[in-house]
Specification:
alpha/beta; globular; eight-stranded parallel beta sheet; 8 strands; about 20% strand; binds pyridoxal-5'-phosphate
Length: about 220
Amino acid sequence: MASDLEQNLADVRQRIARAAARARRDPAEITLVAVTKTFPAPRLAEAYALGVRDFGENYVQEFETKAPELVACAEARFHLIGHLQSNKAKRAADLFQVIQTLDSAKLARRLDGFGKALEVMIEVKLSPEEAKAGADPAELPALAAAIRDCPHLRLTGLMTMPPWSDDPEVSRPCFRELARLARELDLPRLSMGMSHDFEAAIEEGATHVRVGTALFGRRVKQPL
Ligand SMILES: *Cc1c(COP(=O)(O)O)cnc(C)c1O
């Protein structure tokens, strides 16, 4: 019998394929980033065994405790999708291949200084009233230029988190705006869409969808 995760993964992949078909896009352009915050390392290993290669974690400290158990997942790419504090930048650079939440030139220069090749995306704040993290859209051209001056960082895209709503149509204008901003900056990747709204995100051009609950079930809050 298929495990819950195996079934959930098949369902999510099918929903990705259908959304891509509606938008006349190739589903191979869309990377599923499995969001694993609060889930223990063996759950990540299980997903890896089922073919998942991209994982999103929110907290440097939490992932630091799991990473030693995942050395066998040699082809995995780990994405930091939570806010990065500059005092954790070194550990983040060591642990992750992709930093999706870069939001200042200062942090970019700090990451660059460690000398490790990193893919980075800029987190954009599109809902000023709710989001605490992310760069203001007006700052983007200057920030992108500063990151492009960092020899070890490869800026590939933008990431955002719309204001919470269980109606995906509430997220759609944010997704559309992020896609417009990425075109202006000539950036090919868009990380947008979560369990409840990833299909709308794909219709608006997402190349990376960050899916947790739809794969692993509900998160039980645990003290960090
Ligand atoms: C937790 C989280 C997700 C995944 O959310 P689900 O609703 O569980 O799919 C995606 N992106 C970010 C930034 C998150 O913190």
